[in-house]
Amino acid sequence: MSNFIAYLKTKSFRTNLIAAICTVVAILSIAFFSLRFYTKHGEGLNVPEVKGLTLAQAVSKLEDLGLRYEIDSVYIMDKPPGIVTDQDPDANTFVKGNRTIYLTINTSQAPNVKFPDIEAKSFREAQSILESYRLKLGDTTYKPDVARDVVLEAYFGGQFIKSGEVLPTGSRINLTLGDGRGNEDVELPNLTGLTKDEARFSLKGSMLTLGTVTYEGTITDSANAIVVMQYPLVADTLTKVKIGTPINITLSNKPKNQ
Fold it and tell me: Model-level pTM?
C-alpha cells in the first residue's frame, strides 16, 4: 500500500494522469465538433408559406431553398384545383436544409361515393349521414305522410336515387320529407281557365301536386295554354281530396266551349 501511495507522488504518475485527461478531452472535443458539423448545428431556415399557391409556384419556392417535397391530394369542392390546401411543417417552422415538406393539393376530379341509405331516417340523422359521406344537403320539400320530418325520397339532379348508387363527392342531395299530416283533406280547387303555372301555384297553395299534363289540339303558345279539363273533377260529390293528391290537367290554346 505504501508503495502505491509513493507511486502516486511520482512525476511519472502525474505525467500519465495529465496525458490521460488530455486524451479524454481531445476525444470529447473531436466527437462534439464532428457532431456539430454532421448535423450543421445552428444552420437551417424557416419553412415558407406555400398554402394558397399553385403546385408549380410551391415547388419552385421549396426547391429554391433546397427543400424536398412530397405531394398528396384531396378534393374540396369550393376551392380551385391545383391549389396547395395544406402543408406540413407549417410556415415559419425552423427546419434543416433538405427537409421534406409534405404538400396537400386540391384535385380537379371529385372521387365517387356510394349513396348511403337514408330512407325513413329523421331529417337530422339523414343530414348527419350525408355530411359524413361528404355529400351536401340541397332543397327540402314535403309531401303527405303520417311521419313528420322523415326522409321519404332523395333526388340528385332531378332524378330519384337509391342507396348504393355512385355519385361524385360533394353532390347536392334534395330530400322529400313527410309533413306529418297524411290523413288530412283539403278543398279541391277548380283549375279551369288557368295556365299551367297558375294551376301549379294554386295546387301548391292547396298542398296538392301537379300530376300528368296533356295537351288538346294544336298548341301554338304553351305559356298561355289554359286548363280545359282536370282530374279529379270538382263535383258536388267530390269537393275534398287528401293532401298531396296529384291533379292531372289538360291544356289547350282554345277555351273548352270553342
Answer: 0.42
